[in-house]
Structures are given as structure tokens and as C-alpha cells.
């Protein structure tokens, strides 16, 4: 069964997570310090990491930054802070989800299952081809996107979101449709994160070319991709 590493310094919170996850058939390990987490992952990478932001030794954000230097284990942040900036920072440095305390342990377990399903290895087809649109080039076989000839450093979510938009440019996608493109059920509670991922993706595109904003917002509807001067 999938192994979940829980890094949380409050024993009561860790106990509720352990119970909920083991009830769903997962195996778990509990650690209370960030450095112990880094050492543990280097020894044996778990299937998913539930990581508290406010650890006693080093912050969960710093732990995640260091993890991303050597592994791509899925990460769910736990935090008492619900500010948009905190969510965006967490997602930008490579987290897969962000859960605010207090939370439902059953909801966290459901999110764990959804993420593990989403990141499961997929079959690579030998017929994968490049998709080009305006200044974008999508290589679905290598999970890479080039923008104005420059390779973008994207998280899993950002790559999939941009892929969905690129495959049907100018189509307006609702948040629910974008969730579906990520392989996430619309009732899984991820809608609030779509905007944060779009914001992060826009920032990375602006770093390449600040004069264009190809991701369009349609208030009350969703998002589309349309480069300036196109039709």
C-alpha cells in the first residue's frame, strides 16, 4: 500500500491523520522535525508527504524547497495561515495541495487519494508529437513547454493546466473543466487552488516576455489562452 510520511510537530494532529489514513489502507510514518524529514526522504522516498509549514526547526516551505532539489514526491502543506500569498508561495515551490487548519482528516485522506491517482505513472505513447501555438511549443512526451524558445520550469499542475489550454486555444474553460483536465473531481475541494496555479503560471510567462499576457480571465466563466494579435 502507498506509504504516507507525516511531518507535524503536534501529536494530536498527527494522530488524527494517522488514524484517517490507516483507515483508508495507507501505511504511515510520523516525524516532528523538518531535518528529520529530509534525512528520511533521502533514505526512502514515500509515496506522498504531508508537511506542516510551522515546524520547530525549519519551515515546511524550506523543507519543500530542499526536497525539490533531489525528488518530486507529492507534497500537501498543512498550515494555520489562510492568506493567498502563503498559498501561492506553497504552490510555486512545488506543493501539490494546501490544507488550512483546522481540517477534516477524512478530507485530507480524500485529497491524498486524488493526488496519488493523478501522479500515477502514465503510459508514454511513441507517437507523441509537438504541439505548436503562437509562441508556445508543447512536448507532451517530455512534459516540457517552450515559450518564445525558452523552456519553462513548471510544476505538475502548471504543466497540465497549460497543456489543457494549449490543446484548445481560445476556448473558455471553467474551473471545473480545468479540474477535470487535471484528473481531479470537481467536488474534491480544489477549485480555490486553480486561481493560484494560474497566477503562478502567468508570473512565469511574464518572466520570459513581459509584454504579453496570453492567459485570459473571463469573469464568472473561467480562463482561456489567446495570444495578442490572434484572430
General description of the model:
It is a single chain. This protein is of the alpha/beta class and 231 residues long. It has two domains: 3-118, Rossmann fold, CATH 3.40.50; 130-225, Arc Repressor Mutant, subunit A, CATH 1.10.10. The chain is built from eight helices and eleven strands. The protein has helices spanning 11-23, 34-43, 60-67, 84-92, 105-118, 156-167, 175-181, 191-208, and strands at residues 3-7, 27-31, 48-52, 75-79, 97-100, 130-133, 136-139, 144-147, 150-151, 215-218, 222-225. Helix 1 (11-23) packs across helix 5. The longest helix has 18 residues, at 191-208. It is elongated, with a radius of gyration of 18 Å.
Keywords:
4-stranded antiparallel sheet, Arc Repressor Mutant, subunit A, 231 residues, elongated, 11 strands, alpha/beta, Rossmann fold, 39% helix, 5-stranded parallel sheet, 2 domains, 20% strand
Amino acid at each position: 500500500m502507498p506509504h504516507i510520511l507525516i511531518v507535524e510537530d503536534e501529536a494530536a494532529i498527527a494522530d488524527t491523520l494517522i488514524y484517517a489514513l490507516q483507515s483508508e489502507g495507507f501505511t504511515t510514518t510520523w516525524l516532528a522535525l523538518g531535518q528529520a524529514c529530509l534525512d528520511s526522504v533521502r533514505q526512502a522516498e514515500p509515496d506522498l508527504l504531508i508537511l506542516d509549514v510551522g515546524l520547530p526547526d525549519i519551515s515546511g516551505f524550506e523543507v519543500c524547497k530542499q526536497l525539490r532539489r533531489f525528488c518530486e514526491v507529492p507534497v500537501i502543506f498543512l498550515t494555520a495561515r489562510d492568506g493567498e500569498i502563503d498559498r501561492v508561495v506553497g504552490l510555486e515551490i512545488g506543493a501539490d495541495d494546501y490544507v488550512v487548519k483546522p481540517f477534516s482528516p477524512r478530507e485530507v485522506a480524500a485529497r491524498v487519494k486524488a493526488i496519488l491517482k493523478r501522479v500515477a505513472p502514465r503510459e508514454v505513447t511513441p507517437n507523441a508529437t509537438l504541439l505548436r501555438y503562437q509562441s508556445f511549443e508543447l512536448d507532451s512526451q517530455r512534459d516540457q513547454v517552450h515559450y518564445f524558445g525558452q523552456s519553462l520550469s513548471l510544476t505538475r499542475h502548471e504543466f497540465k493546466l497549460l497543456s489543457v489550454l494549449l490543446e484548445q486555444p481560445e476556448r473558455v474553460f471553467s474551473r471545473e473543466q480545468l479540474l477535470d483536465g487535471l484528473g481531479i473531481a470537481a467536488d474534491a475541494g480544489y477549485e480555490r487552488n486553480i486561481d493560484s496555479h494560474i497566477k503562478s503560471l502567468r508570473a512565469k510567462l511574464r518572466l520570459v516576455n513581459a509584454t504579453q499576457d496570453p492567459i485570459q480571465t473571463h469573469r464568472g466563466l473561467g480562463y482561456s489562452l489567446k495570444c495578442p494579435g490572434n484572430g
